[in-house]
Design goal:
Layout (H helix, E strand, L loop, with lengths): L1 H21 L20 H9 L7 E8 L7 E3 L12 H11 L3 E10 L2 E6 L14 H7 L5 E5 L2 E2 L29 E7 L17 E5 L7 E3 L15 E3 L6 E3 L6 E6 L4 H12 L3 E4 L12 E7 H10 L3 H11 L8 E2 L1 H11 L24 H14 L2 H7 L1 E2 L18 E8 L2 E9 L5 E9 L5 H18 L1
Parallel strand pairs: 4-5, 5-13, 6-15, 9-11
Antiparallel strand pairs: 1-2, 1-19, 3-4, 3-14, 7-8, 7-12, 10-11, 16-17, 17-18, 18-19
């Protein structure tokens, strides 16, 4: 009897001591007990996020999941809603994967007698400077019909809801349109002037020579008057565009630079640019096909979708993301309009229903601060992408640390990239999500959101990198 009581006493003491041993030294490097398991906390990561003096002053959210799993295993304030900025492009990307197939719809058309009637689908690649496609150009150039007739289609407003109005002149906010051309921007190339030899008379400092593409806009470019050189002007500003018209003013400089400025879109301007490029008269007409009389509506397909996805995701191209949703809208509902809202409603109902939280989604690019998502929902989308796409293809479309895109200057490793992701940046908001390869070889889907920070952007990026390096080392 005494021996049995003694044995029970030993078992009780052992059970009380084991948890204490398991919890000792929480700051040690990764051990089996610290590997992420669904429902288990990561005290060391909680400590890193909570103790950081930079992260302590703003809203922080994080979510982690193994890429081959079904749900996140770690969350830090991951049920709170954040402004996602350009990480929202992943939702546009996912929608495009389900609606567009393998090629972009470039235009819709039908032919009647000696006239080709055509209509825009939102394809942004016609004579685009970075993802150019000549499919629609060659098609229109070589059609046998004597007359090309462009037909209007109801389209969303040039700017999206919640966009910042005074960003109209920056390269990252071109106007949305049904039939874009040249990416709806003007490109300026400044060449430094030849050096001037010193002489007895004072010489006015020469200015850079400016080349303008498309050349149609060259007569609309001139030197900036004094009243436009406002105090506090960004020193990197080279071009100022008038608010409501296509007048471009060059600030004085003697340096080499390249700049891109959106132009004010209109049907008349588009027809002029298209006609000048094709050297064929292009008129305007109503879209009134008569199927009973033999009018057959067809769609011309152009660039492969991955060419657009790669550019959109790697460098976070807002224009491509917005036009992507317009192209998606040609695949659902009535085809009498190009509607961002129609696509978003479709995606939320038919594609995103299994995500943890509802998505507040208003545009394709993330330019709007009206978008709201939770970190665990964004991680859930990353898991869906990994389940539905070959891993190699998926990672190749994203920015890569030390490789290409918005992460090319960070996350360096001599052995090659270990993080592939999508950044999302607005003033005082710095977010990042994607996939990282841990030291143990596992691929982890992550979301790291920082809203309303007051730190310098460089310090914030350093802190995000520091945290992700720890995640890589410990998991």
């Amino acid at each position: 009897m005494l021996r049995s009581l003694y044995f029970l006493l030993l078992l009780t003491l052992g059970a009380t001591q084991l948890p204490a041993c398991a919890q000792s030294n929480p700051d040690k490097p990764a051990a089996v007990a610290e590997i992420g398991v669904p429902g288990k906390p990561l005290p060391w990561l909680d400590s890193i996020l909570s103790a950081s003096p930079i992260l302590a002053r703003h809203q922080v959210g994080m979510s982690l999941a193994y890429a081959d799993s079904a749900r996140p295993f770690y969350g830090f304030q991951d049920t709170r809603y954040f402004t996602p900025a350009s990480t929202m492009k992943l939702f546009s990307f996912y929608t495009g994967l389900h609606l567009l197939g393998d090629s972009l719809p470039s235009l819709r058309y039908f032919s009647r007698h000696d006239t080709l009637f055509f209509q825009g689908t939102g394809d942004p690649t016609l004579l685009h400077g970075d993802v150019p496609s000549r499919r629609a150009y060659s098609f229109l150039l070589n059609r046998p019909e004597r007359t090309l007739a462009y037909c209007d289609i109801a389209t969303v407003t040039p700017f999206g809801p919640g966009w910042t109005w005074d960003d109209y002149g920056y390269y990252f906010q071109p106007e949305r349109a049904a039939f874009p051309i040249y990416g709806n921007t003007v490109r300026f190339y400044a060449t430094p002037p030849a050096p001037v030899r010193a002489g007895p008379r004072p010489v006015v400092a020469p200015q850079s020579r400016i080349r303008v593409l498309p050349r149609f806009f060259a007569p609309l470019v001139g030197p900036a008057p004094a009243e436009l050189r406002t105090p506090g002007l960004d020193p990197d500003t080279h071009i100022i565009r008038a608010l409501h018209e296509n007048r471009f003013y060059v600030l004085p400089t003697a340096k080499k630079w390249v700049d891109e400025t959106p132009f004010v879109t209109s049907r008349g301007l588009m027809l002029r640019l298209l006609g000048d490029t094709l050297r064929r008269a292009t008129s305007n007409a109503a879209w009134r096909p008569r199927p009973a009389q033999g009018d057959s509506i067809r769609t011309l397909y152009g660039l492969r979708v991955d060419s657009l996805y790669r550019r959109m995701l790697r460098v976070s191209d807002n224009f491509l993301a917005e036009q992507l949703l317009l192209m998606c809208s040609t695949k659902i509902g009535r085809r009498d309009s190009l509607s961002t809202g129609r696509v978003i409603r479709y995606a939320r109902k038919n594609l995103l229903g299994t995500l943890p939280d509802p998505v507040v989604w208003v545009d394709g690019s993330g330019l709007s601060r009206l978008n709201l998502i939770t970190p665990r929902t964004l991680t859930g989308l990353l898991l869906k992408l990994h389940q539905e796409l070959p891993e190699r293809r998926l990672l190749s479309l994203l920015a890569a640390g030390g490789g290409q895109g918005t992460l090319r200057k960070r996350y360096h490793d001599a052995a090659g990239p270990w993080v592939w992701g999508k950044t999302g940046t607005l003033s005082n908001n710095l977010n990042m999500c994607g996939y990282l390869r841990t030291k143990s070889g596992r691929l982890v889907a992550f979301t790291f959101m920082n809203n309303n920070h007051v730190a310098e952007s460089g310090a914030m990026r350093n802190e995000v990198e520091r945290v992700l390096v720890q995640v890589r080392a410990r998991l």
